[in-house]
Amino acid sequence: MQSTTTKHVRTLLFLSVVARLAVWTLVSISAYLLPLFDASPDIGTSRSWDSVLLRWDAFHFAHIAKEGYVYEYEWAFFNGLPLLMRVSAHLQALAGFGSNDWATLLRGGACMAVLCDSTQVLYHLSLHHLHSPSLAFLSTALSVFSSSPAALRLASYNEPFFTYFSYRGMLACARSQWIAASICFALASMFRSNGIFLSGFILWGMLITPFLTGRKDLLTHTRLLKCVLLTALPLIPFIHHNIIAYLVFCTPSTTRIPDWCATSMIPSIYSHVQSKYWNVGFLRYWTVSNIPNFIFALPAVLHIFVFCWFYLSNLPAIIPHIIPQIRSKTNNVPPPQLDSSFLSPSLLPHVLHALALTSILTFNAHVQISLRLLPSLPITYWAAARLMLDLPKWGKAWVTWSVLWGALSCVLWAVFLPPA
Predict the structure, then answer these.
(1) Contact 270/193 with Cβ under 8 angstroms?
(2) Domain boundaries, given as residue ranges, for the chain
(3) For the chain, which has fewer Cβ within 10 Å, the N-terminal or C-terminal residue?
(4) For residue 329, which phi and psi values (nearest 5 degrees)?
(5) Are the beta carbons of 386 and 307 closer than 8 angstroms?
(6) What is the mean pLDDT of residues 402-407?
């Protein structure tokens, strides 16, 4: 078992390196051979290999890292990545490799992202839940086919860090390492606001699972207090971000106090900026002009919804494996064996989390963001593995789409065309 796991991890790390090199090669070739739709990247950097890193949100992260939060709309981006970029630029300057310029910041962020490779973590997380080295290997190998390879494997973007710390926290929860899980989720929340939803895994493991399994003796006052504290920790980056903005914009000494300081019961610059500059809100994105974005995102979104439906439709057969009280009502007859590893009872919190996040992305956000964000859900790859084994034609279709779309998205990203 140990030798098999070691062999799997080595192979997966090799595949991850190959995937990164392939993405870098494709993006670089596209950037040099094809004309840019928007010439902005040539303003901040010279026409060098560093310039391929300056696309889309990387502009905002690099500017925040260099100048701080100058413009109101920049508060839509959390400070985790800019902080890492500044630290990396400082280390490069000490080593004599650069200064606090655009290229150094972008290069530093990209190098930091490489260090946050989530391949090994996903494998061990899959091994825990699927109870099969071969299924864990298949699921993790399929993660090589990402729906947004440029953002996840190349650029100075939030997604590599958010995915890594999310997986780390989920694995810690699986091992009942609650303090480590809380810290990892808090780190994830420094990069993306939806990291606050990760607290649900701690709540599920510490309180809901003992309640459902009849271990109410574990639900002590001490455990409850500990759960509250650990669940609250991942919320701190979001709260801190909004408090700092409030102190900047809403104090009496401010020359012009914005409307959002007083119009909301709980003033939040993040909600204000998302609504004002990105038009985020329930069904706001559901317009005729955005139909192409829904088409782009449909395979990724539908993939999650289908797996959640598959799992939840089998919930009556899964529940007796979770709640012993139900078995006792049938003379304690053991529940029938589940016919799929992808119906493991331990997957339930992952399914609920994935269903909630995908619904938010579909109905309340820019739906194409799902191409970058859904890879942070391990269910994306567990669902793909299930297709490969149970529905091979659909599994091959998913791989084909992932490869073709991944390659096309690299070209689109390189020439500064949406979606991003």
Answers:
(1) yes
(2) 2-237+285-414
(3) N
(4) -75, -15
(5) yes
(6) 95
Which positions ≥6 away from 202 have C-beta within 8 Å?
Answer: 173, 178, 181, 182, 185, 227, 230, 231
CB-CB contact of 280 with 364 (8 Å): yes
- The amino acid at residue 167 is Y
pLDDT: is 255 or 21 the higher one?
A: 21
Element (H, E) at 292: helix 291-313
Quote the pLDDT of residue 3: 85
Quickly state the pLDDT bin for 338 (edges 50, 70, 90): confident
pTM of the predicted protein model: 0.94
- C-alpha 19/C-alpha 21 separation (Å) is 5
Please, which residues have CB within 8 angstroms of residue 118's CB and are 6 or more apart in sequence? 143, 160, 163, 164, 167
Number of H-type helices and E-type strands within the chain: 23, 0
The Cα-based distances of 213 to 178, 231, 242, 342, 362 in angstroms read 19, 21, 39, 20, 33
Measured distance between the N- and C-terminal CA atoms of the chain, rounded to whole angstroms: 41
The token pair that represents 141 in the structure block:
């190998």
Secondary structure letter of residue 206 according to DSSP:
I
Q: Please, what is the Cα angle at 212 between 207 and 216, to 5 degrees?
A: 60
pLDDT tens digits, 238-288: 999 999 999 988 887 777 888 888 776 788 899 999 999 998 999 999 999
Q: Is the pLDDT of residue 154 over 80?
A: yes
- Say whether the peptide bond before residue 210 is cis (omega within 30 degrees of 0): no
Cβ burial of 187 (10 Å; 0-12, 13-18, 19+) is buried
Ranking 102-116, 224-238, 299-313, 392-406 by mean pLDDT, the lowest is 102-116
Q: Which residue, 191, 195, 192, 193, is CA-closest to 182? A: 195
